[in-house]
Amino acid sequence: MPVRTQSPPGERRPLSSILALRRDPLGYLEGLAARYGDIATIQVGSYRLFFLNHPDLIHEALATRDASLVKGRILDQARDVFGQGLLTSEGDFHRKQRRLIQPAFHRRRIEAYADAMAADAAAAAARWRHGETVDVATEMMRLTLRIVARCLFSVDVEDDEAREVGGALDALMAAFSTTVLGSGFIRKLPLPAFRRARRGVKTLDALVYRMIAERRRTGGGGGEDLLSLLMAAREEGEGSGMDDRQVRDEVLTLFLAGHETTANALAWSWFLLANHPEAEASFHAEIDSVLGDRLPGAADLPSLPYNRKVFTESMRLYPPAWAISRRAAEPLTLGGYPVAAGSGVLASQWVMHRDPRYFEDPLAFRPERWTEEFESRLPKLAYFPFGGGPRTCIGMGFARMEGVLLLATLGRRWRMRLVPGQRIEPSPRITLRPKNGIRVTLERRG
Questions:
Q1: Are 120 and 146 in contact (CB under 8 A)?
Q2: pLDDT tens, position by position, 125-177
């Protein structure tokens, strides 16, 4: 591809771009795609940002040119919380840590978590009452928090702890949202949001360091969960492993990212099923046919294709990770355009997943679109809820299995009816949460 000397078309109004991104980031990025097509530039203050809106360009950035691009400004801020965990670390150190952690996410190991996932979901369903009104987004957060604690760390998180951790995470998300286009100086201001965020970090640290200390007292590694693996991990040829701080960074990253994103995907799945009775009927029919009166297990996953399609389609329309940002560590070209060192690169799952070039009737909830033929024709990274390239989410298999098992387990006994009159809309922070939750009335099946 010939290298162009000029920048792509785009927005040249720094202040208005900042205001538009703060006010409505999803709508602003949709507008960029509509006005400029596959690639555009945005001037955000003094920061030049390249917005990519084509699968080939996204693949070029996340896979082909991965070595030239580092994490973007948003995740620079996340280092205040996650330290040098997998989400935020770079280069050789990131590759080393990923090699150490990868065995915990091998297929056979994560399938061993299936029964515990289903059991925790069944326990949650048993506490519900017919006719009760709940916020299903909050319910999914509590459930996935309990599951990730049990499966990855062999720890029971009690309801009070779950509420405390949930509150801490809410405070962190609010602080990230406030500073998403700001500088490190802003985060040091004595604003209430940042004070709450700092208290949230202390709450999360207390929980994680307690888990590490308890495991040290009982002999450290040797178990089958992720915490044991992290504490026992050694790089070949090296005698020392991770210190408590590095274990903390990895635990916190996987603990919070693991439950936050799956919980959001599940909440949006229940919202979509409640809005589409025909899809909901097919969903329940498959569960009844395959499971009858028993809980699902890993062996049932191939027999629950419609459940998988529901979860897949939900992450298409409401991707928990709604955008990915990178920053050029050196000069490079993308799509034939020169990208200066220090420039930002942005791709949006929200925009790409709703592109009519790749998804017929893109705003419709159609789980049945996900046939083998359709998936084989779909360009690589036209659909990328877990990212792409070498930094594809390490917990992708865990999250997909968890999503299908929880939908099937809860769907055996319950259907959800949306409470009338509420306004349900996405809130694009670090993840795509429902802004005011999703209130449903629970209806017992059969």
A1: yes
A2: 999 999 999 999 999 998 998 898 887 777 776 666 666 776 777 777 666 65
Residue 254 tokens read as 């996987």
Residue type at 312?
T
Q: How many CB atoms lie within 10 A of CB 22?
A: 14
Distance CA 438, CA 271 (A): 7
Contact criterion met (CB below 8 Å) for 38 and 53: yes
Kindly list the distances between the CA atom of residue 440 and the CA atoms of 129, 270, 414, in Å, as whole numbers in the listed order.
Answer: 12, 9, 11
CA distance 91 to 84: 11
Predicted TM-score (pTM) of this structure: 0.91
pLDDT per position as a tens digit, 196-209: 777 878 888 887 88
The whole-angstrom separation of Cα 353 and Cα 383 is 6
Q: Kindly tell me the burial class for residue 6, based on how many C-beta atoms sit within 10 Å of its own C-beta (0-12, 13-18, 19 or more).
A: exposed
Non-local (6+) Cβ contacts of 337 within 8 A are 3, 4, 6, 7, 8, 39, 50
